[in-house]
């Protein structure tokens, strides 16, 4: 597994310099897609902030504090996550009793806020008090994949740190070096943002079967074969039973259509190019309908009917 320094060298150097010169901001907003290393970097920064080894500016990884943060057992590192669809005021009230005091083991505490875009306005306003007037030394790290949805009052009080996506061709090479088939490596490199995510998916028992079924359905759709509709009932619905697998189907289908289009674009007629664009847009539209709680089977059948008519 790559280190933070290897995966996000600019982020690492920025934070390393701040630690080295004792110039950490009181609050950071980490912005990046899932899999780019925001969570692991937040844990590393928390470890560096609370590390008991004063001979190094960054986490030693060996002291009791570093080990407990790694195991998520440190009493002075707090995590705030959504309950349901949002992070609510009552969650802030529960954490106030901790943040309103000095840390249990030192004057320092760390708060890591996950999916910051889900903070309600009331919860954010309650949190701002601790950012501006903390008891002791408080480091707050906000994580988000969508900066535009983070409240301006939060953004204005943070140093924003951007996490870059790993290039698809680099991911593909890494996957193939692990023994992955090229077609699977190409697909996963389009979908995930880290080697770890891709390898974890590849090792799932259902991976190969679901990809094979998706590819077959995509082939029927791209050929405008009416059997694409029947295939939904015979294979798609029986195999993709739960929400996770259904989400996986739509993600894979969209990525597969894109890759097929890019591979064949030099040989396609103008009419065929138009059809692939229509197919891609229809797959994205189907995904949105499913996310809006339209029946999975209905969405898939509507997609097949629209494309093959």
UniProtKB/TrEMBL annotation:
Domain of life: Bacteria
UniProt GO BP: DNA-templated DNA replication
GO terms, molecular function: 3'-5' exonuclease activity; DNA-directed DNA polymerase activity
Name the record gives this protein: DNA polymerase III, delta' subunit
Organism whose genome encodes this protein: Vagococcus lutrae LBD1
A Pfam cross-reference name: DNA_pol3_delta2
InterPro entries reported in the protein's UniProt record: DNA_pol_HolB, DNA_Rep/Repair_Clamp_Loader, P-loop_NTPase
């Amino acid at each position: 597994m790559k280190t933070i320094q290897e995966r996000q060298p600019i982020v690492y150097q920025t934070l390393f310099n701040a630690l080295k010169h004792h110039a950490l901001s009181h609050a950071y907003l980490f912005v990046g897609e899932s899999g780019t290393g925001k969570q692991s970097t937040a844990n590393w920064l928390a470890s560096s902030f609370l590390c008991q080894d004063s001979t190094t500016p960054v986490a030693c990884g060996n002291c009791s504090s570093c080990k407990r943060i790694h195991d998520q057992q440190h009493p002075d590192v707090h995590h705030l996550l959504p309950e349901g669809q949002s992070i609510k005021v009552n969650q802030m009230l529960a954490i106030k009793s901790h943040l309103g005091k000095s840390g249990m083991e030192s004057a320092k505490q760390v708060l890591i806020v996950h999916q910051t875009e889900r903070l309600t306005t009331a919860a954010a306003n309650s949190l701002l008090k601790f950012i501006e007037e903390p008891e002791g030394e408080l480091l707050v790290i906000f994580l988000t994949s969508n900066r535009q949805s983070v409240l301006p009052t939060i953004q204005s009080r943070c140093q924003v740190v951007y996490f870059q996506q790993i290039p698809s061709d680099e991911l593909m090479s890494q996957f193939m070096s692990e023994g992955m088939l090229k077609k699977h490596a190409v697909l996963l490199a389009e979908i995930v943002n880290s080697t770890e995510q891709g390898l974890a998916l590849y090792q799932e028992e259902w991976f190969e079967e679901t990809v094979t079924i998706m590819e077959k359905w995509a082939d029927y759709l791209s050929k405008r074969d009416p059997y694409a509709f029947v295939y939904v009932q015979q294979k798609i619905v029986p195999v993709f039973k739960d929400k996770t697998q259904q989400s996986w189907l739509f993600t894979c289908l969209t990525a597969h259509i894109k890759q097929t289009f890019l591979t064949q674009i030099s040989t396609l007629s103008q009419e065929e190019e138009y059809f692939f664009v229509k197919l891609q847009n229809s797959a994205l539209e189907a995904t949105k309908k499913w996310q809006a709680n339209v029946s999975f089977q209905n969405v898939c059948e509507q997609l097949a009917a629209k494309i093959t008519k």
